[in-house]
Design brief:
The complex is a heterodimer of chains A (331) and B (426). Chain A is an alpha/beta fold and 331 residues long. In chain A, 35% of the residues lie in helices and 27% in strands. The model of chain A is unreliable at 1-21 (pLDDT under 50). A four-stranded mixed sheet of chain B has the order 2-1-3-4. Classes of the chains: A alpha/beta (331), B mainly alpha (426). At the A-B interface, strand 6, helix 3 and helix 5 of A face helix 1, helix 8 and helix 16 of B.
Chain lengths: 331, 426
């Protein structure tokens, strides 16, 4: 029971802890960024935008340039060309609070958890009293209060991950960059993290979310930017991207699917490219039309047929399919 | 600046709370206390046991005289030297003397074979005891007195001749090197150990931050240069804390110790830390520490694993060992103000040791000291800037350690991008 209690724990997001509240909506743009390491071109003209209250999914295969892009946003690397803008002006990292959860997790294994959380929060500009409050609040939120005065190395990997998340989010950042935040978390902790991220988004933070787990990306992100070999190969709203695909694949659920095929071929043979029952489920009927415009006619034909139909819907490509399509061409 | 202070505080407390720090401090202080107090304790125990035997009966010194016709001169001489003891002139043989010394009947015994040969029989020959020297002096005196009397000089005159010594005054136009050689040696040694120790501490802590990937988090909170300056200064303050602790314990123990002891008196004669020497030692430790630890910190940031660390920092360490050896050789060959030392006191890598030795062991003009300190301060600034640039590249570089030529290329590129970015922003 206590394991679950933190899920309902009240979290005072805009708590009056003397921390400056996140200001009005901002837009973060990465504009024409080019970065070479020696001879190697890592980023070739990267541009994308992310707004407060929204999460942007930064996708790409290993080595596509995601981490380099993130580091340029964080100000760790200088871009060779291009710049990072906030509302059209060059970013001033002293005025904005940035929270970054690196993919390579790590803090001081031999130091007390409270000690390192306080240190990092103070480095991010909090005063000691605020840092203490935030530390207690976040440890409580993560259900880790009992570990406050334990050494980090004594914790399990998942719990260390939660500590790292607390360290990232403690300063109430304007811009949150999460690199694979869900790796290593059990389903209960993943749920907790989802809640926390959603709160961050609702609270008006700009969230950059980098992950290979597409289901999480679809869950949080309105927009995505797919990187491949140092370029943005696709960017925009997920719904728009999906809609941009021809809507010529239809999935029908019916107990009578096997009888339905000959019926449909007889009625609309000229307009159907292929019709098969699903490999795993014989009640699923997959139809590919020669042209998407025949969709409504197909629906009418079926509804008039008198067959028992459970569902009829257009198959959209999954984010996974889109990702593979745009990045398959290789590194 | 705020970041540097925060990192500094964190690193300082990490440093002084570390097991290595606590252990070395305790060990060094224990060694110093041991070295200063143990001789005093031993001699106290010895004199205590002497006193306890005195309570029962007077200690007896046995002398067998086969050398002179008269026993009187011998008795007189020994009585004068050992007023509390009973001087017994006996006729025993060596074996009997030995057994009686062993069972404690005699404090010690002397078997005088000829005027110039004798056997000194004692139970324990302690380093702290000066009895054998006293006996030797007595024997010499007895020989000379007897010889002079035989030559016709009366006893009083002879005694006067033997005890009169010329009064000497030594005027040293520079610094008396005999007096401060050992103290300088000890301080140079301490400085050497401290710089090696704290330089390596910085190295280790940089590599472990990289290894544990704590750097990934830190780098998103503060500038790499701030992280490095904070770390170097923090560990340096840790070093100074340790030095001050050790020096003050040794000064205190030297001054509270029972001075009336042959061994400690001897030490005190040679080891003599004056306040300005200690202050100079701390100043040059600070300068040397920064020169070396900036380089070590920057080079360590290029290592991805602790195994790569040695290859990277060995050249710097060798440089320091070489500097140390050159200075010691000059110290030992009376070349303290020789051309080598003068040149060394203006080269940043050798100056912290060379200039310190010259100041303490010779007379150096203020201008020379100021120039040397300025050269060192300027190189600290240069190395600091260079180290910050290397650090920025190094901390996020995993895998193969870059070759020097690659590093130069990366540095140039970084500098170019930084300038371009500044230009764009202004």
């Amino acid at each position: 029971m206590s394991e679950l209690s933190f899920l309902t724990a009240e979290y005072d997001f805009d708590g009056n802890d003397g921390i400056e509240k996140r200001g009005i909506a901002v837009e973060l743009s990465v504009s024409g960024v080019v970065k070479n390491f020696g001879e190697k071109e890592v980023l070739k003209d990267i541009s994308f935008q992310a707004r407060s209250g929204e999460a942007l999914g930064l996708l790409g295969r290993n080595g596509a340039g995601k981490t380099t892009t993130i580091r340029i946003v964080m100000g760790v690397f200088y871009p060779d060309q291009g710049e990072i803008l906030i509302d059209g002006k060059p970013i001033n990292r002293k005025k904005l609070r940035l929270g970054y959860l690196p993919e390579e997790r790590g803090l001081y294994p031999k130091k007390l958890i409270s000690e390192q959380l306080l240190y990092l929060a103070q480095l991010r500009g909090m005063n000691k009293a605020d840092a203490r409050k935030a530390c207690d609040r976040w440890l409580d939120r993560m259900g880790m209060s009992e570990y406050k005065n334990k050494k980090l190395e004594t914790l399990s990997k998942g719990n260390q991950q939660k500590i790292q998340l607390a360290a990232t989010l403690m300063c109430d950042p304007h811009i949150v960059i999460l690199d694979e935040p869900f790796s290593g978390l059990d389903p209960v902790n993943a749920m907790l993290l989802k809640e926390v991220i959603q709160e961050m988004i609702d609270g008006g933070a700009v969230v950059l979310f980098s992950s290979h787990q597409m289901n999480y990306v679809e869950e949080f992100c309105d927009d995505i930017a797919i990187l491949n070999t140092g370029r943005i190969v696709k960017a925009g709203k997920i719904t728009d991207i999906k809609r941009s695909y021809p809507r010529d694949r239809i999935e029908i659920q019916s107990e009578q699917s096997e009888k339905l095929i000959p019926y449909l071929l007889e009625k609309m043979g000229g307009e159907i490219f292929s019709a098969d029952t699903g490999k795993e489920n014989h009640h699923t009927l997959l139809i590919r039309l020669k042209d998407a415009s025949a969709k409504n006619r197909l629906f009418q034909t079926i509804s008039q047929s008198g067959f028992d139909i459970d569902s009829f819907h257009v198959c959209e490509p999954s984010l996974n399919d889109i990702f593979v399509e745009y990045t398959e061409a290789g590194i | 600046m705020k970041h540097i202070l925060q990192v500094l505080k964190f690193e300082y407390f990490s440093c002084i709370k570390s097991k290595a720090f606590i252990l070395t401090t305790i060990l060094l202080i224990a060694t110093i206390l041991f070295m200063t107090f143990v001789p005093a304790i031993i001699s106290a125990v010895i004199s205590g046991s002497e006193q306890s035997s005195e309570e029962g009966k007077q200690p007896v010194i046995a002398i067998v005289n086969h050398a002179y016709e008269s026993d009187e001169t011998v008795r007189e001489a020994f009585t004068a030297a050992y007023q509390k003891d009973e001087i017994r002139i006996s006729q025993e043989d060596l074996e009997s003397l030995k057994s009686k010394v062993k069972d404690g009947t005699y404090e010690f015994a002397i078997l005088m074979e000829t005027p110039l040969t004798y056997t000194y029989i004692t139970k324990n020959n302690s380093l702290m005891s000066a009895t054998d020297q006293t006996v030797n002096e007595l024997m010499t005196t007895i020989y000379r007195m007897t010889s002079m009397t035989e030559l016709g000089i009366d006893q009083e005159q002879a005694a006067q001749l033997l005890t009169t010594r010329p009064a000497a005054t030594t005027i040293t136009t520079d610094v008396d090197q005999t007096k401060n050689y050992f103290s300088t040696y000890i301080l140079v040694m301490l400085q050497y150990i401290a710089i090696v120790m704290y330089g390596q501490m910085v190295s280790q802590s940089v590599v472990s931050e990289k290894n544990t990937r704590a750097m990934e988090m830190l780098i998103s909170c503060a500038k790499p240069s701030h992280l490095m300056f904070g770390k170097v200064i923090g560990s340096g303050l840790g070093g100074i804390t340790q030095m001050i602790l050790i020096l003050s314990v040794s000064l205190l123990s030297f001054h509270t110790i029972n001075m009336d002891n042959a061994f400690t008196r001897q030490i005190l004669e040679y080891v003599n830390f004056s306040l300005d020497t200690v202050l100079y030692a701390i100043l040059f430790f600070i300068l040397g520490y920064f020169i070396y630890s900036f380089l070590l910190g920057a080079l360590s940031s290029l290592a991805s694993r602790s195994e790569d660390l040695n290859t990277l920092i060995t050249p710097v360490m060798m440089l320091y060992v070489a500097a140390f050896i050159v200075v010691l050789m000059c110290m030992n060959s009376d070349q303290i103000n020789g051309p080598v030392m003068i040149v060394c006191s203006y080269i940043p890598f050798t100056a912290p040791i060379a200039m310190f030795v010259r100041i303490v062991m010779s007379d150096v003009s203020v201008i020379e000291v100021i120039i040397s300190v300025c050269v060192q301060l300027f190189s600290i600034y240069l190395f600091g800037m260079l180290a910050a640039a290397i650090y920025r590249i190094g901390v996020l570089l995993y895998g193969k350690t870059p070759k020097p030529s690659e590093l130069v290329k990366l540095l140039k590129e970084q500098h170019k991008n930084r300038q371009a970015l500044k230009k764009r922003q202004s």
